[in-house]
Amino acid sequence: MISNCVSKVNITFTGTSNYVYAGGIVGYCGANSDTSTNVIDNCSYYGTITAKNGSCAGGILGAMTNRNVTIKNSSNYGTVIAKNNVGGILGIHNEASSKSTCR
After folding, report:
1. I need a labelling partner for 27 at 20 to 30 A (CA). Which of 35, 39, 57, 77 fits?
2. pLDDT of residue 36
3. Rounded to whole angstroms, how far apart are CA atoms 76 and 7?
């Protein structure tokens, strides 16, 4: 569990790889088991993520590949710029279901 954190860093990706996995709090979150649970709770991001040539960038979480990831009570006040798979909270999600209560 990641909780009660604030990030104000600026992240800049200048490489050529398509997959950046950049997040203001977590870049990538995945698990090998359907029974594991990952939680990001009460976190905020205030910086800028720039990945003009890459994908999978999010203000809280860049990419997740586990259906048991919960993002709750978290906010992105920053800026996220990427080529594709970009979001204010989550860049990309590769599973069937997830829960979130973000603003």
Report:
1. 35
2. 63
3. 10
Q: Find out whether 84 and 53 touch, Cβ atoms under 8 Å.
A: no
Residues in Cβ contact with 33 at an 8 Å cutoff, skipping those fewer than 6 apart: none
Residues 6 or more apart whose Cβ sits within 8 Å of residue 20: 13, 51, 54, 55, 56, 57, 62, 82
In this structure, what token pair is assigned to residue 56?
């999978």
Q: Does pTM top 0.85 for this prediction?
A: no
How far, in Å, CA of 51 to CA of 33, rounded? 30
Residue 42 has pLDDT above 60, yes or no: yes
Phi, psi of 79 (to 5 degrees): -120, 135
